[in-house]
Amino acid sequence: MTQERLPMPDLTCREMLLQMGPSHPAMHGTVKLDLRLDGESIVAVDTTIGFLHRGFEKMCENSTWNQCFPYADRLNYVSPAINGVGLALAIEKLLGIEIPERTKYIRVILSEIARIQDHLTAIAAAALELGGFTAMLWAVEARDYYYYMFEDVTGARVTLSYCRVGGVRNDLTPDFRQKFDHAARITEKLMVDIDRLLTRNRIFVDRMRDIGVMKAAEAIDWGFSGPCLRAAGVPYDVRKDDPYLVYDRVDFDVPIGDRGDNFDRYLVRMEEIRQSLRIIRQCFDQMPDGPVNHPDWQVTHPPKSEVYGTIEGMIAQFELVFRGPVVPPGEVFRSVEGGNGELGFYVVSDGSGRPYRLHVRPPCFAIMQALGDMLMGTMVADIIPTFDSINMIGGEIDR
Amino acid sequence: MLELVLIAFAKCVFLFLAFLLGGAAILSWVERKMSAVIQDRIGPNRAAVFGFTAFGLFHPIADGIKMLFKEDFVPARADKILFFFAPVLSFVPPLLAFMAIPFGPPVAGREWLMVSDSQMGLLFLLAVASIGVYGHTLAGWSSDNKFSLMGALRTSSQLFSYEVGLTLSLLGVFMVYGTIMPQAIIGGQSELMWGWLPRWGIVTQPLGFILFMLASIAETKRAPFDLPEADSELVAGYSTEYSSMRFAMFFLSEFVGILLVSAFGAVLFLGGWNIPFLAGDAWWVVLLQVGAFLAKVGALVYLQMLVRWTVPRMRFDQVIDFGWKYLIPFGLLNLLATAVVLAVWR
Amino acid sequence: MEPILFAVLAAVALVAAVATIAWRNPLRSAFSLIVCLFALAGMFVTLFAHFLAAMQILVYAGAIMVLFVFVIMLLDLSGHGSELKLRILPVLGSLAVLAVAGKFAKTVLSTHPLVTDVPPAVPDSFGTVPGVAELLLGQFLLPFELVSLLLLVAVVGAVVVARRRFWREGK
Hints:
Distance between the termini of chain B: 43 Å
Order of helices and strands of chain A: EEEHHHHHEEHHHHHHHHEEEHHHH
Distance between the termini of chain A: 37 Å
Largest sheet of chain B: 2 strands, antiparallel
Number of domains of chain B: 2
Shape of chain A: globular
Structural class of chain A: mainly alpha
Largest interface: A-B, 33 and 28 residues
Helix content of chain B: 55-70%
Number of helices of chain A: 17
Oligomer: heterotrimer
Radius of gyration of chain B: 21 Å
Strand order of the largest sheet of chain A: 1-2-3
């Protein structure tokens, strides 16, 4: 595969410097790779990130706890629902409150839908940039049904702003289950189609197999998590190893690979989509009825009838909006299994209604560090599947 | 003499305007519409004249007008002369090559439906088509862009490798029918084997047909061999710096190239204008035969597009490996087998 | 018709040939050489040597020059010209040109209609595919096969030369 090249003593050869990005089509406008090339083989890679830096952490320090959620949605814009869930769980952990049962299920359902969206996008992008336009559009088609479902519930397709401290903004729509069943059926059908189109396609396998290899030990050293770590054979999943919400009550498998290459990452993602569908179905079956918000008005917004009808409701609403929910002083770390891996929120409160410090541990930041190592010795064309299979998300990595 | 020149000129104009430019424009529509159908989309349907969209058939015209009015950008450090010549060089050879393609049988003893019935026969087609590589190569080099340069390098090595395979896949056909003249090859294919099986190239040279299709897709630089312009890694390869009509020429030359290899394949392997069990020189027979030729070209175009929208792109070294380690050995094997069979047969 | 064609093709060939050595840019030189080869192919056609014309384009313009261009593109063109400047070269070059031109002149004069009335006898099949095939695979079969053997040796040799470095390193 990789050609061994030796320096030729009698010919003066020079390596070519090539700047890929940030406006290169494969770099999503958010990354720049400085490549040193020997022909088409990569000799050195220097990765530059930060083109999408917005100052998420600093912005949060000037917002009330609830005002952080819209910012959080823009972290991983491919699986937006998980970001809000993670932030809410961190704040609730600091508050020490228990959210209603129904809300837990709702959050799990939305997280898993977001995971399906994320994995479909990652597979689609990998297929597209390898020239498999058809597989990409099929995956995007399946993804769109979930966007419509989010639109029904939250009014937005990507920037959901759905989670709140102590609950969610509103309950699911009554026909959510039917819409999900419909979307799941289509997803399963399209998954079969994509499977047929890619999984045993010799060209696709040749492009993905043994490219961008990251073995288990190295992957752990780099701080990998999520599908990229599981593809290397480490069965680490926050949902299993540090269960949150109701993940300990549902039955699902954690798929792992053994080679840690692009193809394993693709297979792991394909299987995780199926597992996510399984989790969501179980959640729908187990989900109880009931309120979706914590009853304490110090934490969650009172119903509008109370706001306009009673002085207590009015004051609670006023306090929550202008001062924010009061979170006791302290610091806490809570991570969830994001689309790309362990998405951690480190939250420090000084007892006011705003975060004193909020730090995000984005999964693909750690993975992105290893990109240069993964690409070393491969060819220019191998950048594309490798870069896509680690599913770098600019919003998350640059914050 | 003058009469001959005028007739040839008229045939050229008809071929060029009616078939090639019209065909290429329609192909761009077919390509978009077909990919849309494959991908659960609707496809182009917005360009309307007086409210009629005609299934988006106006889009090629709208595209052409748009291309004409776009800024013609030339990079500051480009090699101006070569930058100017490159699109012409990529556009003209496939057009020229069509001169050796017969669209129908000789009518009233003369080749009205074929521009030039020269002694070179299909060698002319091969020779002229082999020049097309310079357009893309020089375009990539003269743009003074590293992505373009890599595209150019890929183009020249890919086309060079696959030209050998393409030529090898044809030699079997030339041997079976004992000629390189297109009309004579079609004449040979019009015969029947054992009284019922048309002696088409695809029947006598099945392996040759497969090799030809593979090599011809590589020669037209389309997926899975579209890495000279691999949009995700090389931005747009050799045409990265091109805009306006110069880009349109590359774009059109790609579609003319598809038409060319399809017509070539139809002549060599699908019996050209031949319809089995139908012969004669009545006007309706000729008309049907021209229609059959166009249908065969359409079928091969359809096959190419189906491949284009199904498979991902190969990597550079894999393409070259495939060309030298599979296509050429199999081509030689096919040649040997054909020679042995012919020697035993006669 | 034929004299006009000849004049045009000859002019193109000459201009392109001069351009080939006059351009400072090697890729432009290569491009000019391709044009020159095309003009020569055109001349072959006017002589009814169709096979030769097709091969001229297919092999020289379509294959060999592609490799030339390929190699030139890999070169770094920022350093102009070669360092080799020997005074003797122009003299040697002129002598060689004169020798070749003299040989050509002799051939042309010996066959030109003005000098000898008898035009060279050329069979109808001259230069066509069957004609060339009969010559190559009939009359000149042994030289033809020897040449292909020579080419095979050259190919194997090229591979050996290119791969030796890898073998020496034990790969």
